[in-house]
């Protein structure tokens, strides 16, 4: 249910808007009505739930246009509808600068309100869907980064789908699908790539034995490390080290 407030300095107009229709049929609830823009603005700034504001233009010290400007600056998520008389149409165009959702011409009919609230609900529903999509996308990005960070910090240990799923609170099978969907690689492929990356870095240090590197990047079996390394680079660890040292020496001699 969306909540809207109504602002008009004429008592009978406010009473009319309270009784003219059942707003709940359109997915709205009239949360409050005010006789001044100042009161409405204070209500919004108190943190009350407000999805839309219907306001007259000419009211006391603070006009409906000025109220729209404040709302647009503070709460651009709120949809504002300006209510104006026929002679004020040009004046109401200033509301465009405040991103006003729509305007109603006085006298306002039931049909006008039906049209307005149907359009308002559609717009707010779409905005809600967009917000949910953005929140979901943000969640996915953050979760993938969390998983990558965990792998980067723990690749040398016994890291499995089960261990990492326990860390992030996901079912292992779901985590496997989730990771593949959002990275293009399955979990083991990514873990292997990280381990090979660090193995290559360590192989450039001739003081570290290959079997030590195997253990340092998470492989208990040196034989298995050789197999995985060659599968991913086309060279054995020893051959990679020799080739790198040759290239380094050639570069140093030129």
Automatic annotation (TrEMBL):
Response regulatory domain span: 3-121
Coiled coil start-end: 110-137
InterPro entries recorded: CheY-like_superfamily, Homeodomain-like_sf, HTH_AraC, HTH_AraC-typ_CS, Sig_transdc_resp-reg_receiver, Tscrpt_reg_AraC-type_HTH
Any one GO biological process: phosphorelay signal transduction system
Residues annotated with 4-aspartylphosphate modification: 56
Residues annotated as domain HTH araC/xylS-type: 145-243
Highest taxon in the source lineage: Bacteria
Name assigned to this protein: Stage 0 sporulation protein A homolog
Naturally occurring in which organism (per UniProt): Eisenbergiella tayi
Highest classification ranks of the organism: Bacteria, Bacillati, Bacillota, Clostridia, Lachnospirales
């Amino acid at each position: 249910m969306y909540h809207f407030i109504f602002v008009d300095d004429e008592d009978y107009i406010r009473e009319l808007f309270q009784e003219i229709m059942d707003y709940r049929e359109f997915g709205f609830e009239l949360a409050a009505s005010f006789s001044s823009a100042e009161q409405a603005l204070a209500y919004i700034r108190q943190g009350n739930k407000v999805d839309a504001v219907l306001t007259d233009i000419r009211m006391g010290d603070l006009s409906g246009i000025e109220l729209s400007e404040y709302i647009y600056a503070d709460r651009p998520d709120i949809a504002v509808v300006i209510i104006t008389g026929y002679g004020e149409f040009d004046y109401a165009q200033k509301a465009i600068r405040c991103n006003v959702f729509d305007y109603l011409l006085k006298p306002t009919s039931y049909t006008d309100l039906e049209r307005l609230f149907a359009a308002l609900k559609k717009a707010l529903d779409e905005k809600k869907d967009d917000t949910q999509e953005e929140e979901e996308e943000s969640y996915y990005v953050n979760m993938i980064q969390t998983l990558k960070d965990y792998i980067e910090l723990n690749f040398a240990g016994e890291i499995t789908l089960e261990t990492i799923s326990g860390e992030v609170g996901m079912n292992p099978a779901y985590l496997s699908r989730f990771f593949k969907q959002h990275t293009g690689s399955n979990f083991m492929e990514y873990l292997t790539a990280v381990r090979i990356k660090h193995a290559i870095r360590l192989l450039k240090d001739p003081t570290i034995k290959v079997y030590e590197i195997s253990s340092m990047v998470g492989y208990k079996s040196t034989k298995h490390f050789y197999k995985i390394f060659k599968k991913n680079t086309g060279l054995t660890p020893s051959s990679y080290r020799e080739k790198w040292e040759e290239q380094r020496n050639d570069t140093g001699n030129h």
